[in-house]
């Protein structure tokens, strides 16, 4: 365990967790897909003291009319905001149901280089048949098949991250060699439906391996660094966290908070007039900041962190920033990330040795 | 060159455009000198892009790697390698630059339109209209070994796939009506009811059905670049590209012949001659005097062409492993072996190795060159060498006579290889009135002086039009 204090993650896709969140956003709809908006939300999350922001994604539109149907790719947004922040971790959702794992692994490794070790990967899932039609690929049908694709995708991606040893670039003037091919490795991956030769194009990420997050029920066991666990109440979350076979667990928590202008219940009711806030089997908290602090206090010791899904980012994030996080930090129930450390370090995870490294070094934290 | 009336040229007001190409995987990026910096450190990408922007360049380019190069089945060790995913790196640069275009080299054989078109579109929005796409194709199974898709695409099919890819990508980029998203906070609907058009395409290469998720950017579509040099490649560019790269930028007559050929092909497909920008790749070496520039070139070539590299370059030409030969000795006595290219070292430039070897032998003998000196003098290095004023005069002639619209410059040193160009050459060009003194537009399309994207002007053949998607 990384200690009882929680690490805080924030999902920042779109305008918030509610499908109609855009109606209460502090900006007009056409401002959502702009660089200013992407950078602004990330800066607010970083200033608030979040350890990690995640960005949801998929091949299909995020919602349906009259709600938001537009979304910039999560990897592109993550790279953009990694370059405009300096402390917060950044983890895009990337499904590997249909994507090319060679590209995915390179994009994510690049994100880790760009952020100097602050990158994570939320393994996504594309269950809708429409996703197969968008990709123009045969449908990956059923949970078992999608879980297999997720497992293969993670395995080959992790293998590619290790396909360059940390010291593969040798710049040996004496022998005219820039690379040492003995420190580069073919992955020769054979999965259920495809093979990948390797090695990667992108050198090993600064963290060695990015932090891999995902739902333990959507990924074969033993693949994740952080299990994102659901459950409608504390008992269910506790049970799910105990079942998750991952070094770290984060609870998924949907939040609607009282703001200086409106009570949480009224804000939810206002949006419910337009669309239901579908239950996804996650903890949901509606009320004042004090109650949320109490709920999160109960989660310390149960999970290592929480991922918050605010009803409306523009309304709930300021309350989290002003009231919730300062109180949690003051009571040592949560920690803020420190500058110049990697996401792995923030989560108390070691930098893993390369599977190909002959002598395993002491693996000090990467903090360049 | 005799001085003439500056207005007595075919294009008296033509302007020169510069792009910078951050590293290929080839031996002209010098890594052995302490000034040769990291090829992956994000600070170096930022530094080159910001330096180019200070020099009012049109664009910053990144290449693409799909498999590490090999020689005789073993990974090639002598040259720089290891680079970031292009679109991802460019999305980061969009946050720390303001005006410069950001161009990704992305392959149509090992990508799918729904994914790549969306990624490029996202880059275009995050950069407020500065994205470009250098469209490349691959046909070999060797590269395919890294992909689900795998396998081999017939050589003839690679351009067919690229063209169909572009058709689908354009339909995706045009999927949203202008002004599709509401500008009013109290709007009843996030987007107009019929704002998004479903893209349905069924062709020989792609069978897709999707709802595009992004609006058009301030420049409409990403700017399309293309680098094919074969007749087929030039025709592809004439039909599809906004900018064509080439290796025809180092000799005036050769550059002009290429440009005239491209313009002829443009006319043949019904496009105006000025619809395509011609930006050959080149290297620029600058000295305070001609002698100093030549001295610098000599140093650069010796850094680029080490004895091992000379043997490697010659080995590729001969089709033989020459790594145990003496680079400072004579050329190999053997005849070259003509083998089929499997793609593992990129595209070969030499059509007939026997002819090239005969030329190398004759020139080496005449000049008394060693193998290494022969590679230095006759090998694939290319570029312009001179003083700032001399180069400015030369480039003015190139652009005003329509031989080029500019150059895509590969610096021999990262990250500081652009300094001489930005600090010394650009002011000379500005003095001659052939180079901008400030950015007058905000998008890459505006920098290049291009018209609206094709999709906006021409009916699309790709998609069945049916409103109400989403």
TrEMBL record, chain A:
It comes from the Bacteria. The keyword Protein biosynthesis does not apply. It comes from Streptomyces phaeofaciens. This is Monooxygenase. InterPro entries: Diverse_substr_monoxygenases (IPR051260), Luciferase-like_dom (IPR011251), Luciferase-like_sf (IPR036661). PANTHER family: ALKANESULFONATE MONOOXYGENASE-RELATED (PTHR30011), C2H2 FINGER DOMAIN TRANSCRIPTION FACTOR (EUROFUNG)-RELATED (PTHR30011:SF16). Pfam families: Bac_luciferase (PF00296). GO terms for molecular function: monooxygenase activity; oxidoreductase activity, acting on paired donors, with incorporation or reduction of molecular oxygen. Residues 33-278 form the Luciferase-like domain. The keyword Glycoprotein does not apply.
TrEMBL record, chain B:
Keywords: Flavoprotein, FMN, Monooxygenase, Oxidoreductase. It comes from the Bacteria. Coiled coil: none annotated. The keyword Secreted does not apply. Transmembrane segments: none annotated. Residues 447-457 have a biased composition (Basic and acidic residues). SUPFAM superfamilies: Bacterial luciferase-like. GO terms for molecular function: monooxygenase activity; oxidoreductase activity, acting on paired donors, with incorporation or reduction of molecular oxygen. FMN binds at residues 105, 155, 159, 230. Residues 34-403 form the Luciferase-like domain. Residues 447-470 are annotated as: Disordered. The keyword Oxidoreductase applies. It holds the Pfam family Bac_luciferase. InterPro entries: Diverse_substr_monoxygenases, Luciferase-like_dom, Luciferase-like_sf, NTA_MOA. Belongs to the NtaA/SnaA/DszA monooxygenase family. NCBIfam families: FMN_nitrolo. This is Oxygenase.
């Amino acid at each position: 365990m990384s200690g009882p204090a929680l690490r805080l993650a924030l999902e920042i896709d779109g305008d918030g967790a509610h499908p109609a969140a855009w109606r209460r956003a502090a900006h007009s709809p056409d401002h959502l897909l702009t660089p200013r908006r992407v950078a602004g939300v990330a800066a607010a999350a970083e200033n608030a003291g979040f350890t990690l922001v995640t960005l949801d994604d998929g091949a299909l539109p995020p919602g349906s009319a009259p709600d938001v149907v537009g979304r910039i790719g999560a990897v592109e947004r993550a790279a953009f905001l990694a370059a405009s922040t300096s402390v917060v971790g950044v983890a895009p959702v990337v499904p590997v149901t249909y994507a090319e794992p060679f590209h995915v692994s390179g994009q994510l490794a690049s994100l880790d280089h760009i952020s100097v070790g602050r990158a994570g990967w939320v393994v996504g899932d594309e269950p809708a048949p429409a996703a197969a039609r968008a990709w123009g690929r045969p449908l990956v049908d059923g949970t078992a098949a999608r879980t297999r694709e997720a497992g293969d995708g993670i395995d080959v991606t992790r293998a590619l991250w290790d396909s360059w040893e940390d010291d593969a670039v040798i710049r040996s003037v004496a022998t005219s060699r820039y690379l040492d091919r003995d420190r580069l490795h073919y992955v020769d991956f054979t999965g259920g439906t495809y093979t990948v030769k390797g090695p990667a194009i992108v050198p090993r990420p600064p963290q060695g391996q990015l932090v891999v997050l995902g739902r333990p029920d959507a990924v074969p066991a033993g693949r994740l660094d952080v299990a994102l666990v659901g459950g409608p109440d504390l008992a269910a979350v506790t049970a799910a966290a105990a079942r998750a076979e991952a070094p770290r667990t984060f609870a998924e928590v949907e939040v609607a908070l009282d703001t200086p202008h409106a009570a949480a219940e009224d804000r939810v009711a206002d949006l419910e007039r337009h669309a239901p806030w579908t239950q996804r089997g996650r903890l949901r908290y509606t009320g004042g900041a004090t109650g949320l602090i109490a709920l999160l206090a109960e989660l310390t010791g149960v999970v290592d962190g929480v991922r918050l899904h605010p009803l409306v980012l523009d309304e709930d994030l300021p309350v989290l920033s002003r009231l919730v996080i300062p109180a949690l930090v003051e009571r040592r129930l949560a920690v803020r990330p420190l500058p110049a450390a990697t996401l792995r370090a923030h989560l108390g995870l070691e930098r893993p040795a390369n599977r190909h490294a002959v002598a395993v070094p002491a693996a000090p934290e990467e903090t360049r | 060159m005799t001085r003439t009336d500056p207005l007595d040229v075919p294009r008296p007001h033509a302007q020169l455009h510069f792009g910078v190409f951050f590293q290929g995987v080839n031996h002209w990026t010098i890594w052995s000198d302490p000034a040769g910096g990291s090829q992956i450190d994000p600070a170096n990408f930022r530094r080159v892009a910001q330096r180019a922007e200070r020099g009012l360049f049109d664009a910053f380019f990144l290449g693409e790697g799909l498999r590490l190069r090999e020689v005789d089945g073993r990974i090639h060790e002598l040259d720089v390698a290891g680079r970031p995913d292009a679109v991802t790196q460019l999305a980061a640069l969009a946050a720390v630059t303001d005006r410069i275009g950001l161009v990704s080299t992305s392959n149509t054989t090992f990508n799918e339109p729904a994914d790549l078109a969306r990624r490029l579109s996202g880059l275009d929005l995050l950069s407020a209209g500065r994205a470009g796409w250098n469209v490349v194709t691959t046909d070999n199974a060797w590269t395919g070994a890294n992909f689900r898709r795998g396998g081999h695409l017939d050589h003839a099919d690679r351009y067919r796939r690229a063209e169909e890819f572009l058709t689908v990508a354009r339909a995706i980029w045009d999927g949203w009506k202008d002004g599709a998203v509401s500008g009013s906070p109290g709007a009843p609907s996030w987007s107009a009811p019929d704002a998004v058009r479903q893209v349905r395409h069924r062709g020989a290469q792609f069978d897709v059905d999707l709802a595009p998720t992004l609006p058009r950017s301030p420049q409409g579509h990403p700017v399309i670049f293309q680098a094919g040099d074969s007749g087929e490649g030039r025709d592809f560019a004439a039909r599809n590209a906004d900018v064509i790269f080439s290796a025809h930028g180092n000799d005036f007559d050769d550059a002009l012949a290429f440009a005239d050929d491209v313009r002829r092909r443009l006319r043949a497909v019904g496009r105006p001659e000025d619809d395509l920008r011609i930006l050959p790749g080149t290297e620029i070496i600058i000295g305070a005097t001609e002698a100093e520039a030549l001295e610098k070139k000599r140093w650069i070539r010796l850094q680029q062409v080490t004895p091992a590299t000379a043997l490697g370059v010659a080995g590729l030409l001969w089709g033989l492993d020459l790594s145990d030969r003496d680079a400072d000795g004579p050329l190999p006595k053997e005849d070259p072996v003509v083998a089929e290219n499997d793609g593992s070292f990129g595209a070969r430039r030499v059509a007939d190795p026997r002819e090239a070897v005969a030329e190398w032998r004759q020139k080496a003998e005449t000049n008394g060159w060693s193998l290494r000196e022969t590679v230095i003098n006759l090998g694939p290095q290319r570029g312009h060498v001179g003083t700032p004023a001399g180069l400015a005069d030369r480039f003015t002639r190139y652009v005003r006579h329509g031989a080029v619209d500019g150059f895509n410059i590969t610096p021999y040193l990262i990250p500081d290889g652009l300094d001489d160009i930005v600090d010394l050459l650009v002011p000379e060009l500005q003095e001659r009135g052939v180079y901008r003194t400030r950015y007058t537009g905000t998008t890459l399309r505006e920098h290049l002086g291009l018209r609206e994207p094709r999709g906006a002007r021409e009916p699309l053949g790709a998609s069945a039009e049916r409103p109400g998607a989403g």
